[in-house]
Amino acid sequence: MSCQIPEERIKATIAFHGHSCPGLTIGIRAAELALRELDNPADSDIVAVVETDMCGVDAIQFLTGATMGKGNLIHRDHGKMAFSFFRRDTGKGFRAVLNPEARGGMDEELAELMKKTSNGTARESEMQRMAELRSSLQARFMTLPLEEMFQLSPVEQGAPRPPRILQSLPCEHCGEKTMESRTRRFAGQTLCIPCFGKVEQKI
C-alpha cells in the first residue's frame, strides 16, 4: 500500500526540510508507521528515539510533532536507520529498522555514482543515472507496504523518562552555566564537557 499521508502534508514536510530525497522519504514512512501503530497520539504523548541524524529525522519531527525542545525527540548516535516510537499515556512502543530489501538492490550502483559525484569525477551521463536511481528509490519507498519497508519489533522497557529541569552550575574554567547532569569533576573542580575535554585528554 502506498503512503497514506495526505499530499499537502508531504509537500509541507519537504518545504520544512528544504528538499526532497530518499532519506526524507524514509522518515515520512517511519512517521506514518508511528502514527498508525500508536493510534495518532497527540504530539505531547509520542516519543521518538532516532538512531541516525539523516534527513528523515526532520520528517519524523514535522509529522509526529516530537521535538528535542519538548524532550520527546531523542537522538542516539548509532548510525542505524532505526527508529523507536512510544506512546506515553499507554506505554505502547515498538522499534522499526529499515529493511535492507526495501532498497531494491540499488545501493551498490548508487553508492559508486555518489562517490564519483562527490569527488568530481562523474560524467554527465553518470550524474543523470544517479538522479534516476534516487528518483526510483524514492518512488519505491513511497509505494512499499510499511510491513515490507520496515522490520518491526516490540519494545518492552517502555518510553524514556520525561525530561527533568535540573540545576545549572558554573564551570570553574570558562564560567558558563551548565546543566549539572552534563558537568564533570576533575581535580576537585566542576567543569563543563568542553573544558573537561581540554584538561583530561589522553595522548
Principal-axes shape call = globular
The CATH class designation of the largest domain is Alpha Beta
- What does the largest sheet look like? 5 strands, mixed
Q: Would you list the SSEs in sequence order as H and E?
A: HHEHEEEHHHEEEEEH
Q: Uncertain regions: pLDDT < 50 for 5+ in a row?
A: none
CATH topology heading of the largest domain? 60s Ribosomal Protein L30, Chain: A
Supply Rg. 21 Å
The helix count comes to 7
Number of strands: 9
Helix content: 25-40%
Instruction: Examine the secondary-structure arrangement and name the CATH architecture of the largest domain.
Output: 2-Layer Sandwich
Which strand order does the major sheet show?
2-1-3-4-5
Mean pLDDT: 92
Question: Could you say which structural class the secondary elements and strand pairing correspond to?
Answer: alpha+beta
Number of domains: 2
What percent of residues are in strands? 15-25%
Cα-to-Cα separation, first versus last residue: 55 Å
